[in-house]
Structures are given as structure tokens and as C-alpha cells.
Amino acid sequence: MIKTKKELESYLKEVRESLKNKTASSVYALSAIKYALNLENIYEILDQSNKELAREIWLDLKKEGIHVENPPLLFS
Description:
mainly alpha, 63% helix
């Protein structure tokens, strides 16, 4: 489980890089970002830089053709 801001940052960077490098599918990235957003401590570890990383991943998923609503947690 992701417990710190630093761990979340590392996780999000890994997801972003695998999506950009095409080493993971869009569905994997969507599942990974949804996992992160549903962590019980997300409000504690989602600082501004992590929020920007998550937004970037979310917007990349939409560019890939995934039809999803913007989560208020990232786009408020």
C-alpha cells in the first residue's frame, strides 16, 4: 500500500512513464490511477505535485481514447 507522498510520487511517475513508453496499456494505467485515487489516505498524500502528475496521466488516458469523467479530486 502507498503510505507517503514520496511513494505516491514514485508510483505515479512509474505509471506515467509506462504509459508514455507504451510498455503498459491504457487500461492498465486507468486501473493504476483509479487504485491510487481510492487509497484510504489519498487526501493526506495527494499534494500539489502529485495532483499534477495524476492529472497528466488522466489527460493522457483521455487522449488515448478512454472515455472517463474527470474526477473532482483532480479537477476541482
